[in-house]
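User: hey, got a sec? need DUF4247 domain-containing protein folded
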Amino acid sequence: MRKWATRLHLTVILALVVTLLSACGSVNVSETYPLESVNKTGGETSYVYRAAGETVQEVAKELADQKKPDQISKEDPDHMFLVYSDQIIHVQKDGQKPEDTLVEVDSKEYVRQNYSPSFLEGYLLASLIGSLFDSSRAGSYGDYRGYGSLNQSPPKTGTYHAPTASDTKAAPPITVQKKGSIFKRSNSGDDGGAGSGGLFGKKKSTSSGTSGSITRNDGSGSGSSKSSSGWLKPRKSTVPRTKVGGFGRISRRR
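Assistant: Yep! Here you go:
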């Protein structure tokens, strides 16, 4: 019980610290998406992260809440774009593993050299596309549509490879705020004892409508007991015995 109490106190303290940090605008609990692939050629960089078990809309919202983009595309289950001053984040469904989402962080130069303007027209404002692509290069653009479509439409420049130690160090970290929660344990795994039914659960009573009582042995040795008439009733006191014929004397200390 003491151990459970200690854990409970630590949980409460941690929750208070998280609340205070949140009020200060800090990222309290962060989970970094693992870096999966890198394509880097000079100023053209593309870093691909994997968000396992999350949808495109969920990941896009988490990233936008973390850092407000200059522009974000409308909600879409397959592709969403977040535009920042120095990079464009392409959030896309993984064609090979649809339950996962890929987060591709591209430099604007990488987008300019490899993406197809016609593909981006369905997601970004025309003014942004016009500022990214030079009209004089019409007809020479790439046909890249994101890492999730790598096999069908590879980029024009560079190739993707597993990240090296230097790649990981240079890659922009993608962190998103996660909300913690305390889960109640199932009652099926524990039918009694301290902590049964969860951290705050109580042991189930086997009877209803009964009240407890304190009993004492009647001294017969038969194991029978009778209810006490009062809670912790004191034993009946008797007059202390004195020696017959004794004389008491009171003396003053010197």
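Quick note: The helical segments are 2-23, 56-66, 108-114, 117-120, 126-132, 165-170. Let me know if you need anything else on DUF4247 domain-containing protein.
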